[in-house]
Amino acid sequence: MPLFQYKVIRVRKLSIATTISVHPERGVVVRAPFWLSSSAIQKFVEEKSEWINKHLKKIGSTVPEKKYLEGEMHLYFGQEYPLKINLINTPIRTSVEMAENSIKVDLYQGHTEDKKGLEIKEGLLRWYLETGISVITEKVNFYTEKVGVNYSRIDIKKVSSIWGSCSPNNRLSFNRKLIMAPHEVVDYVIIHEICHLVHRNHSSRFWALVAKYDPKYKEHRRWLYRNHLLLSI
């Protein structure tokens, strides 16, 4: 499942190549021959994700670059919290935790200023990964029981061009940046991938199953499309 929403236009010509365009108003548009399967189109889009994200940023990115300073706001499940930096006298590994409506960072004060920013960024990345493993596993177990399916493994990706995926051997993978999105949006991505354990395509039956467990899935999908650039560390 890519980080962005895209529209597929089927063309009734045997010789047409599959193409992608990015528009300020229409977003990402894929033109594909009518005979090409949905899974093949999704694979093609995922392969072009880097190019698509590059062009999406060109037409819509106004997100300021993070500085990793005291009081800077960072997202955690759809809510913004200020960084609270706690300087420690002895050398330690930078650690991050939620504390008193802020994101508390324990940081060795002996680092240079440039190194401090890098350490805070790396600490946040580890924290999102560790939190993601716990929260997403709990959510996956909840929804797989409801749907009545089983998975083989859950992975939280450190770097990924997609929000989630379901492999042929029932391995579910998710992007750790999801921890910055609202819970209902995280649930949508999880439900989306779990439903692929039943339907390995994006057929009407697949979307009907998604809607059964997330009636507002279209709203949550739009949220990701409109806000995915905000989910940056």
Strand portion: 15-25%
Fraction of residues in H or I helices = 25-40%
Low-confidence stretches: none
Helix and strand composition category:
alpha/beta
**Overall pLDDT confidence:** 89
Question: How would you name the CATH homologous superfamily of the largest domain?
Answer: Metalloproteases ("zincins"), catalytic domain
Radius of gyration from CA coordinates: 20 Å
Distance between the termini: 20 Å
CATH architecture of the largest domain, please? 2-Layer Sandwich
Number of discrete helical segments:
6
Instruction: Enumerate the strands of the largest sheet in spatial order, edge to edge or round the barrel.
Output: 4-5-7-6
User: What is the level 1 CATH name of the largest domain?
Assistant: Alpha Beta
Please report the total strand number as a whole number. Answer: 10
Query: What would you call the shape?
Result: globular
- Give, in order, the helices and strands: EEEHHEEEEHEEEHHH
- Can you tell me the number of structural domains? 3
Largest sheet: 4 strands, mixed
The fold-level CATH name of the largest domain is Zincin-like
Protein name: YgjP-like metallopeptidase domain-containing protein
InterPro entries: UTP_pyrophosphatase-like (IPR053136), YgjP-like_metallopeptidase (IPR002725)
Organism: Candidatus Collierbacteria bacterium GW2011_GWB2_44_22
Pfam families: YgjP-like (PF01863)
Structure overview:
By secondary structure, the protein is α/β, with parallel strands linked by helices. It folds into three domains: 6-60, no CATH class; 73-124, no CATH class; 131-230, Metalloproteases ("zincins"), catalytic domain (Zincin-like), CATH 3.30.2010. The protein is built from six helices and ten strands; from the N terminus they run βββααββββαβββααα. The chain has helices at 38-47, 49-60, 113-147, 183-195, 204-213, 217-227, and strands at residues 6-11, 19-23, 27-33, 73-76, 79-88, 95-98, 103-108, 153-157, 164-166, 171-175. The strands form three sheets. Strands 4-5-7-6 form a four-stranded mixed β-sheet, with helices on one face. The protein has a three-stranded mixed β-sheet with strand order 1-3-2. A hairpin with a 3-residue loop joins strand 2 (19-23) and strand 3. Helix 4 (183-195) packs antiparallel against helix 5 (204-213) and helix 4 (183-195) crosses helix 6 (217-227). The radius of gyration is 20 Å and the shape is globular. The model has no long low-confidence stretch (mean pLDDT 89).
